[in-house]
Amino acid sequence: MHDVAITGMGIISAIGLSAGEFHRRVMEGACGIGPAPWSSALPGQRAWWGTVAGFVPRDWMDDRIEDGTDLFAQFALAAAEQALQQAGVGAFDPLRTGIVHGTSIGGSRALMKAQHRLE
């Protein structure tokens, strides 16, 4: 087992576009999940969703990356860049750097686009 140090964090979520904003909003009791606009009003038939408002991919990547990358991966790239900036460790060493990524339904935009093309 090797020692591990968390030197930087980054978050893109429904309640914050940075680790600091996320922490502040969690401490305030914020929740980024709510009824989906297409949700039924009938009891037991609600659909829920969380959206990320205010995220601008071009703040984190160039046009080519944005165009060819699904939204969940754009969030991951931005959060990783935030973590690297916060760490302030200089040049990125891929052999000494790990990333923990969590998503609940990553890739749905790409799936919808593919279905639209098929139809």
Map the helices and strands.
Blueprint: H1 19-27, E1 33-35, E2 48-50, H2 63-67, H3 71-87, H4 108-118
Antiparallel strand pairs: 1-2
Features:
mainly alpha; 4 helices; 119 residues; single chain; 35% helix; two-stranded antiparallel sheet
How would you summarize what this structure contains?
The protein has 119 residues and is mostly helical. It has helices at 19-27, 63-67, 71-87, 108-118, and strands at 33-35, 48-50.
Description of the structure:
It is a single chain. The protein is mostly helical and 119 residues long. The protein is built from four helices and two strands; from the N terminus they run αββααα. The protein has a two-stranded antiparallel sheet with strand order 1-2. The N and C termini lie far apart (51 Å).
Count helical runs: 4
**Kindly state the mean pLDDT as a whole number?**
87
Structural class: mainly alpha
The main β sheet shows up as: 2 strands, antiparallel
The string of secondary-structure elements, in order, is HEEHHH
Strand line-up of the largest beta sheet: 1-2
Would you count the extended β strands for me? 2
Rounded radius of gyration (Å): 17 Å
Give the CA-based shape.
Answer: globular
The termini sit apart by: 51 Å
What helical percentage do the residues reach? 25-40%
Beta-strand portion reads 5-15%
Uncertain spans: none
